[in-house]
Hybrid peroxiredoxin hyPrx5
Amino acid sequence: MEMLVEKADLGFGPRSWRYSMLVRNGVVEKMFVEPNKPGDPFEISDADTMLRYLAPECKAQESVSIFTKPGCTFCTQAKQMLMDHGIQYEEIVLGQDATTVSLRAVSGRATVPQIFHGRSSHWRQ
């Protein structure tokens, strides 16, 4: 496919340029090839782009994370609120999965719960 590029400037060495391809019965139906620009672009060869092509009516799963700590009643309430609204989430438990250092790095705060949805954050005490 002649997609080999040199990326030594990024510490990668020779590698295939990023792309995704839909092949049906041995025939390439669609290719999503990353634009030729500096760095290591990852804009259109991802699974979400392919899903939008295959099923434009399908809604991609929301990315939701919640920082909690054991014994926190506010955390329990926040998780219940997410469940009541049918929102799937990934729980990051302080002292188990991460520390307050990570929480401060992400949010600037060390209190829980903290809920992150996509690129925005919502804090509730």
Remarks:
- Residues 4-54 form one domain.
- The beta strands are 4-6, 14-16, 19-24, 27-33, 64-68, 90-93, 114-117, 120-123.
- Residues 73-84 form the longest helix (12 residues).
